[in-house]
Amino acid sequence: MRARDLLADFPTVALDTPVIEAARMLADQDLPGLVVVDDDGSPFTILPGTQVLRLAVPAYCQDDPALARVVDEAHADAFLRALDGRTVRAALPQRPRELPVTDPDATMLELAALMARTHSPLVAVVDDGRLLGAVTLQALLDRVLAA
User: Fold this and answer.
1) Which residues are CB-neighbours of 60 under 8 A, at least 6 positions away?
2) Has keyword Metal-binding (predicted)?
3) Based on the structure, what is the number of domains in the chain?
């Protein structure tokens, strides 16, 4: 089985897409992450949903989870408001990581190794510089477990 056999159309966002719009896409389409493309439409990086949360959750709550408990419920439920006015570019890590991109001929083990190494729930599949789609962790595990 190859990447081309697990490939699915996958939504993309640009670096200047509002991050709240990206969060809505993640929620509305039940996605583990998004493929971020540059101005040429080539994959720039993968934006996992957890990275969007990292941008929205106050740093003091990430550093000390006990502090999250002392925030009243009304304010705790509104933490995504911190995303207003920010772009996907702001949600990306400071230091670029290895880009989880492969070609359509990658095997399932190659896909799994790339996902594990890059901590990414999806891999962009590119052929001749063109984004074909992505393979998700769920699709990979479904296929491996069925075998």
Assistant:
1) 67
2) no
3) 1
